[in-house]
Design a protein that fits this description.
Layout: E1 5-7, E2 10-13, H1 17-32, E3 39-43, E4 57-58, H2 61-66, E5 79-80, E6 83-89, E7 94-96, E8 112-113, H3 116-129, E9 133-136, E10 140-145, E11 151-156, E12 159-161, E13 167-172, E14 176-178, E15 181-184, H4 191-200, E16 209-218, E17 228-234, E18 243-250, E19 254-262, H5 272-279, H6 283-289, E20 293-303, E21 314-315, E22 318-320, H7 336-354, H8 366-372, H9 375-381, H10 386-410, H11 451-455, E23 470-472, H12 477-486, H13 490-493, E24 499-503, E25 509-513, H14 523-527, E26 533-535
Parallel strand pairs: 1-14, 2-3, 2-15, 3-9, 6-17, 15-22
Antiparallel strand pairs: 4-8, 5-8, 6-7, 10-11, 11-14, 12-13, 16-19, 16-20, 17-18, 18-19, 21-22, 23-26, 24-25
Helix pairs in contact: 1-3, 1-7, 7-8
């Protein structure tokens, strides 16, 4: 059966900050030059913003470049950060770190507490007003190449296949979407990004990741401090496990509260989800949430490797932008501004390439050059050693050393070396027999909850009768290796109860995959010890619908 074909001048896979900024910047350039170009943005979520989750504090530098009049356009940046807090926690106590001790780069003056999902919805409105065609609910399943092995577009996923792979009465074959240039803006650990990295050997150093787990609460008015942005370190994590919390007050008595755990942790008994639930039982946090109401829940992996983990950004026929490449500044705990700028710079490179009279060049060499000359590079270069220091020396020594380097940077003193990441995160797990077990308390249903109760707030839409999107390269490994050597860590690192070890009637254990629970955080693809689990997009429109996240 021959596929339908759609042709555009520019194709962008992913309706996040990077992809939408790229489409908008390109259209603004075309408008200024009085030229007509077609731009398509493909988004796998049921709507733009459905799969977007972040803390989030936004540095408005990129949005101001893109739309200097963003206030008049009613961008959803309404809560200016008015106060920073940094707390050290023990099990029972908390200590405020004086604001003046924080390196200037970690302060949030001039930044905004917001919902990145809402920001993306607003960006989509601006893009569509400029003529960008946005198609939500369509997943990009594979890259499309010409006979010279140059990328010429993508193939969307089929719709209406049963769990066994056979077409149902509702079957619709995926289509080809072609363009001279394709930008990949899938976000963290994208499936197309992985394909491209392998085919074109784009990656030579490992990416590093964190897992961010977030809830939005409505607290009582007397406990709400609009514009207050707090972060914590310490309990419940030990000194060898990196991570910490964020607590942002914004909106109508809303608090965005979450926990980020670096995925290079060693103990396979650790559960990031349960560490977050335990964190909320700390007396200081409990007092904030008392008599409040939990409104939403979600989780997302985060690229933390910085400049050292950047892959080659370009390939024949396109480029990686946003967190497909990795744009997060770890100590600042923000990256959407860098993601947006990367998309804008890629759009400028494409516009220049399409205007050349000597024909299209397959490699967008102007893009990585512009990225290196931009404030994105400056932002990430200043903190390039922080994550390696945390990985090498642990939370406390790593934080002290990192703080010293950031303070030196504040005085324009740049150290001459760049520390490298030594291992991929999945290589950091130790055998279960070598690590202490962790006894997590039973959820109280008031401050702490179980996974199934939590994902009920993620608005998951997933037709169970579709092919499983969580693939096993070898179906024997979950029992022969993961269970036997690591006590089946997939049961704990997944924040959505997707993986369970259950027993056949014979008593033999097997891995049950509850794919309908998946909230698309990609942690399984990152942390599986032998990289046996491969995450691919399910049917378009499947997954969570994060509201206000």
């Amino acid at each position: 059966m021959q596929r339908d074909v759609m042709n555009y001048d520019v194709l962008i896979v992913g309706g996040g900050p990077a992809g939408l900024s790229a489409s908008t910047r390109f259209k603004l350039l075309a408008q200024a030059a009085i030229r007509e170009f077609s731009v398509c943005v493909l988004e796998k979520g049921a709507e733009v913003g459905a799969h977007i989750l972040s803390g989030v504090i936004i540095d408005p530098i990129a949005i101001t470049e893109l739309f200097p009049n963003w206030r008049e356009l009613k961008a959803p940046l309404n809560t200016l950060v008015t106060e920073d807090g940094f707390l050290l926690l023990s099990k029972e106590n908390s200590w405020d770190i004086p604001h003046w001790l924080l390196p200037p780069i970690m302060r949030n003056k001039g930044n905004y507490i917001a919902s990145l999902s809402d920001v993306c919805k607003w960006l989509a409105e601006q893009a569509e007003a400029l003529g960008v065609e946005i198609y939500a609910g369509f997943s990009a399943q594979e890259m499309l190449y010409d006979d010279k092995q140059q990328v010429v577009g993508i193939i969307t996923g089929d719709m209406g296949r049963a769990a066994n792979g056979e077409p149902t009465a509702q079957f619709v074959q995926g289509i080809e979407i072609r363009a001279p240039y394709t930008l990949i803006a899938e976000g963290t650990r994208g499936s197309l990004t992985r394909q491209l990295e392998m085919k074109f050997n784009l990656r030579t150093t490992p990416q590093k990741y964190g897992l961010g787990i977030k809830e939005v609460w409505r607290v009582t008015p007397e406990k709400h401090r609009s514009g207050y942005a707090a972060h914590t370190m310490g309990w419940p994590l030990d000194a060898h496990t990196g991570g910490g919390s964020f607590i942002y007050h914004y909106g109508e008595h809303l608090v965005s509260i979450g926990y980020v755990i670096h995925l290079d942790y060693a103990n396979p008994h650790l559960s990031p989800f349960d560490e977050f639930q335990r964190f909320k039982t700390h007396p200081t946090i409990k007092a904030l949430l008392q008599d409040g109401k939990r409104l939403s829940y979600g989780a997302k992996s985060i690229t933390e490797g910085g400049l050292q983990s950047w892959p080659e950004m370009i390939f024949p026929g396109g480029a990686l932008i946003g967190c497909s490449a990795g744009m997060v500044n770890v100590p600042r705990i923000k990256g959407s501004h860098n993601a947006m700028k990367s998309g804008m710079l890629a759009a400028e490179a494409i516009f220049e390439a399409l205007g050349k009279e000597d024909g299209l060049q397959p490699l967008l060499t102007a893009y990585p050059q512009a990225l290196r000359n931009s404030w994105v590079w400056q932002d990430l270069h200043a903190v390039r050693n922080i994550k390696p220091l945390l990985s090498k020396f642990g939370t406390w020594a790593g934080t002290m050393l990192g703080g010293m380097e950031m303070w030196l940077g504040a005085f324009k003193i740049t150290l001459p070396w760049t520390l490298q990441h030594q291992k991929a995160d999945h290589e950091c797990l130790k055998l279960a027999s070598e690590m202490p077990k962790i006894a997590y308390p039973k959820p109280d249903g008031i401050y702490s909850f179980d996974r199934l109760n939590s994902i009920s707030l993620s608005n998951i839409a997933h037709d169970a009768d579709q092919p499983c999107h969580l693939l096993l390269k070898d179906k024997t490994i979950p029992i022969k290796v993961n269970l036997a050597e690591f006590d089946a860590p997939e049961q704990r690192y997944c924040p959505a109860a997707v993986y369970e070890i259950v027993k056949h009637e014979s008593g033999e254990p097997y891995l049950q995959i509850n794919a309908q629970n998946c909230i698309h955080c990609k942690t399984c693809d990152i942390k599986d010890p032998l990289q046996n689990i491969v995450w691919v997009p399910p049917e378009g429109g499947s997954g969570p619908v994060f509201n206000g996240m």
